[in-house]
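Deliverable D5.2: sample structural annotation.
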Amino acid sequence: MQHLQITPEEITMETAGIYERMRRVVPPFEWAVHAPFVAEINRLKRQRNAVILAHNYQTPEIFHGVADICGDSLALAQKAVEVEAETIVVCGVHFMAETAKVLNPGRRVLIPDLQAGCSLADSITANDVRRLKAENPGVPVVTYVNTTAAVKAEVDICCTSANAVEIVESLGSDRVIFLPDQFLGRWVADNTDVEIILWNGRCEVHEQFTVSDVQAYRLQFPGVTVIAHPECDLSVLKEADMVGSTSGMIRYVADRRPERVVMITECSMSDNVSTEFPDVEFVRSCTICPHMKRITLENIRDSLLHLQHQVEVAEDVSERARLSVERMLAVGRGQGK
């Protein structure tokens, strides 16, 4: 864990005001370890003309310490096309970096750890999609963004958990193939009259939550508001007070200001959101995504320092994948979102 040549005075200057954003969730002894990396990263960002995109599931020292743009997969997809930096560092998992590259083919896109994968993205291949299309001729195909660029290149349109129902209904079809998350697909089917043809993919984080978990939270923390991500099993979602994407969860807390809330999703989400709402008690439901946690301050620093690891997508795949992502973004723009 070596540091670059940076003085205590430079660390103080580069991190001025940053710790205040995370003081409630990062104790001082941890910040003492993080601060030199935060200083190095922020200095390297200027030198490399770089911008850092960070998903809501990143740890607080990344989310609040070095990220320029934070959000869920939809927000990061939208913002990726607006940045002007020469280099984009994606603090998330590999399919997110691929999406950023697809939308910015002329820019350098880096991911700090090439092994930061996703159980959903790993659950389906381009060949699987082609087979499904052959078995269901003429049926439009929607894929959740948690898929590789190769899969996105084979479908009609992408969606996120924030706009899945809207995207499915925008196709004007009685039947739709929905990939790859069967839990999200079941939730979509429960909220639309469109017949949904499912794939058997699951998120290894969200599939761990059970109805018993929700009931235990309610018993242990009377009056708690339960908000759940739609990648959970439908039985869990039916026990929740609100179901929504990570951005939807944040809006719900901001609008409702519940006295006590539990977010049924990845562990770091509550840490990051709680800093913005000191009047709300956040009950921690700690289920960690091992892939998101492969991204650290140290490998972000190394990625910027050595311009590693560059994400590339074959041109023919990139062009077709870009169409499916842009169609998704156009649906949102068309409805003023």
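Annotation notes: The mean pLDDT is 92. The longest helix spans residues 28-48.
The annotation will be released with the project's public dataset once the embargo ends.
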